[in-house]
Design goal:
Oligomer: single chain
Membrane topology: Multi-pass membrane protein
Distance between the termini: 84 Å
Helix content: under 10%
CATH topology of the largest domain: Maltoporin, Chain A
Organism: Albibacterium profundi
Number of strands: 40
Keywords: Cell outer membrane, Membrane, Receptor, Signal, TonB box, Transmembrane, Transmembrane beta strand, Transport
Radius of gyration: 28 Å
Subcellular location: Cell outer membrane
Structural class: mainly beta
Main location: membrane
CATH superfamily of the largest domain: TonB-dependent receptor, beta-barrel domain
Strand content: over 45%
Shape: globular
């Protein structure tokens, strides 16, 4: 018995230190969630301070937070959030990871400008990304989406005349740039270079551009980047509120009115709603010297949202309707080869045109409806489940000049219906590891409506897709690591007739995408993001089967049904510095694309009964895109700020000695801003800024096949000024801008109608915004 006791004592002496040492490794995790004590809803953005460790963090979009590398013992946690009393609590951490729920009480004072709103998904990516918040969007209200995004280095736009523009990210556009409208991947006839996004920018409270290859999370079309258009979360309490925006512009005499109204529903706590609408009308636009005939626009959009939210369950419904009629510059449609050559040689219309609000042929009429239904469920300890269904209907009609009374009949009449189902499971694991699992399924049916008396440029088609992915993210104090992998299968079944000849067939595509990235906070003032993305994109129906006149672009386009899927490898690095007065962000990237598909001008012109049109062929090659984006600002004395933005892009055809067409020119923007806030006055947020925008000549293009030389370098001076006026509990925002202030006559290389006309002249806009 004595021997047995001695054995126990010896065991304790030998092993207890090892047990204590194991516990003192400080590898424990404190996990928690911050909730509103009244509504039981998560308080996103709450600041959490761990007193003993002197470290702080913020709650994510669902109220969750965590601290890693914690030892056993007692800890004091201090939580703050605007409109709530500071919460200070002491917790005891044992030899296992701890999870706690913290409730915050509303302050006794009434803060009229504070509303509790629902959570918004937190963007997590190691790829370069830039977000335009409400203040930046206020400066560009009334502009189309592509124009708004040009404020971001590396983002330009491709135009078809003065009325149609679509975003370009690092030289990628159309089906290589995925757009997400309120969580739903935008589906329409986006394959067309002259098919602008059917999105009303007034619905957005922020717009984010991800410049990396994000195929793992978003699918094959994200080979060039992602654009996220996000409205603000619906209010949970706070009563009725809204806004009215009025915009007037001198060029085209464009008038825009947009209004929004939102509130919670008092009889049923947790229920809230929002309605929004926009009307826009404009006439013929003007260059520095002449009008561009038939460039008017009419637009009417509206949307409605409904949300019901309890402690762990969120139900969201959303509907939007986008309706636009826009004219296509008539000078791009000419009657014969001789007339076309004369128009290109002249470089501008033979008449100065005139102003009118009338829209004649050629023109486009597009209606896009979107429905979203979403269920969000917060499970245990930071685990979340999202199920989302989306339906979209896109009806596109394009009208052209035709003999007799046929001009009233659309020459192209397309209707596309799409269904999507997205399921994601987000889980916070031990040791600071976060896992995201997801599956996506899509069904797209596109048909040509009979009765156009013309052969459609693309056949009818059905497209089905399925994808599954997993993303793992490790979050540490000094760095984040992220890795993801995805598998996609897509099928395209096309069927059409040219005369009595059938064409089309079924194409099956499948591939694997991957990503690997790091965010390294290696210094208090410096951080580095590096992301390597493997992506792919199957050819679209127009690239495979186009053969005929594309009315909107006034060109003949010819596809190739033997095209292969594109394979992309993009490495992008972002170095950021921020300290006191100086901020710098530098992006550098290399993007290799195998089987890159592009629309190549042949130099050939085809004449028919409809007119004479240049011919473009879809071709394929291996390509390398390399470039850099720079954003810098320095705070000068007396309220002045100097800003610098620039983008450089080099694109190379690796299989031929020639150059790739339609690659954005390099550009540089210099800005000087004066800003001042008068706290004792009704006026606040006053600013005035002057910008010098320089776009350099594109020297890398194929002179032997393009129809005209690339335009020369041009410089534009832009002026912006604005302020806010406090009226009791309401605010009125006033903003004035003057683009191309000096009325410079210029041409943009990325405008497909640069052969026939110049770009826009001076445009002065007044924006009034009333918020209540």
């Amino acid at each position: 018995m004595i021997l047995l006791k001695k054995s126990y004592i010896l065991f304790a002496i030998l092993f207890i230190p090892f047990l204590l040492f194991a516990q003192d490794k400080c590898e424990l995790t404190i996990k928690g969630r911050v909730l509103d004590s009244d509504t039981q809803l998560p308080l996103a953005g709450s600041s959490i301070y761990l007193v003993e460790k002197e470290v702080a963090t913020q709650a994510d979009g669902h109220g969750y937070f965590s601290f890693q590398n914690i030892c056993t013992g007692d800890y004091t946690i201090e939580i703050t959030n605007l409109g709530f009393e500071t919460s200070v609590q002491t917790i005891h951490v044992t030899a296992k990871d701890e999870s706690h729920t913290f409730f915050m009480e509303h302050e006794g004072v009434v803060l009229h400008d504070v509303n509790v709103v629902g959570h918004q998904p937190t963007l997590r990516t190691t790829a370069a990304n830039t977000t335009l918040g409400q203040e930046e969007l206020n400066k560009s209200k009334g502009e189309v989406l592509a124009e708004i995004l040009q404020d971001i280095p590396g983002v330009t736009m491709m135009q078809t005349g003065a009325t149609i523009a679509k975003p370009v990210i690092h030289g990628m556009h159309s089906n290589r740039v995925l757009m997400v409208n309120n969580g739903i991947k935008q589906e329409g006839q986006q394959w067309g270079a002259e098919h602008a996004p059917e999105i009303d920018p007034f619905i957005a409270s922020e717009i984010t551009v991800i410049k990396g290859a994000e195929s793992v999370k978003y699918g094959a079309e994200a080979i060039g980047g992602v654009i996220l258009v996000e409205p603000s979360p619906l209010p949970i309490n706070g009563g009725l509120s809204g806004s009215v925006d009025l915009v007037g512009s001198t060029n085209g005499r464009v008038g825009t009115a947009s209004a929004m109204l939102e509130s919670d529903f008092k009889p049923l706590p947790g229920l809230s709603w929002r309605v929004q609408g926009t009307l826009k009308k404009g006439g013929n636009l003007q260059t520095a010297d002449y009008y561009l005939n038939n460039t008017g626009i009419r637009e009417s959009n509206y949307s409605a949202a409904l949300s019901y939210r309890k402690s762990k369950l969120h139900l969201d419904a959303y509907y939007s309707h986008f309706n636009t009629d826009l004219g296509i510059f008539e000078g791009a449609h000419v009657g014969s080869v001789d007339d076309l050559n004369a128009a290109i040689d002249h470089g501008r219309p033979f008449t100065d045109g005139a102003f009118t609000y009338d829209i004649d042929v050629p023109r486009q009429s597009v209606i896009h409806d979107l429905v979203k239904l979403k269920i969000h469920k917060d499970l245990n300890e930071g685990t979340q489940l999202d199920i989302q269904y989306g339906f979209q209907r896109n009806a596109r009609q394009e009208y052209d000049t035709r003999r007799g009374d046929r001009s009233s009949i659309p020459a192209l009449d397309l209707v596309l219906n799409s269904h999507s189902l997205d399921v994601s499971y987000d889980r916070i694991n031990a040791n600071s590891l976060r896992s995201l699992f997801g599956i996506n399924a899509t069904a797209i049916i596109s048909n040509n409506i009979p009765g156009t008396m013309a052969t459609p440029i693309i056949p009818n088609y059905d497209s089905y897709g399925f994808g599954a992915f997993v993303v793992e993210r490790l979050v540490k104090e000094k760095y984040d690591l992220e890795a993801g992998i995805r598998y996609d299968f897509k099928t395209l079944d096309a069927a059409g007739y040219r005369g009595n000849e059938f064409y089309g067939g079924q194409h099956d595509f499948h591939n694997v995408s991957g990503s690997l990235g790091i965010l390294w906070r290696f210094h208090r003032d410096w951080n580095l993001k590096s992301n390597l993305g493997l992506s792919w994109r199957p050819p679209t129906v127009n690239e495979l089967y186009s053969d005929g006149l594309h009315h909107g672009s006034a060109s003949i386009e010819v596809g190739d049904n033997n095209l292969k899927s594109e394979q992309g490898y993009k490495w992008i690095n972002t170095l950021s510095y921020s300290k006191e007065k100086l901020r710098i962000e530098l992006n550098g990237y290399a993007h290799y694309l195998k089987n890159y598909i592009y629309l190549n001008p042949t130099g050939e012109v085809v004449e028919s009964l409809r007119g004479a049109f240049p011919v473009f062929h879809y071709e394929q090659t291996d390509a390398l895109f390399m470039g850099a984006d720079l954003t810098a600002s320095y705070q000068l004395p007396y309220g002045f700020l100097y800003g610098l933005k620039g983008s450089y892009l080099y694109a190379d055809d690796l299989e031929a000695t020639g150059n790739l067409p339609m690659i954005p020119s390099n550009r540089l923007d210099n800005k000087l801003q004066y800003a001042r806030t008068l706290e004792s006055s009704r006026f606040s947020n006053f600013f005035i800024e002057a910008q010098l925008q320089t776009v350099f000549e594109q020297t890398r293009y194929n002179k032997e096949s393009d129809f005209t030389p690339a335009p020369a370098t041009y410089n534009l001076v832009n002026i912006n000024a604005g302020t806010k006026i406090k009226l009791n509990e309401q605010t009125v925002g006033i903003h004035v801008s003057a683009n191309n202030l000096l009325n410079v006559s210029y041409k943009e290389y990325m405008n497909r109608f640069r052969y026939y006309a110049h770009d826009l002249g001076r445009n002065i806009s007044l924006r009034l915004s009333y918020n209540f």
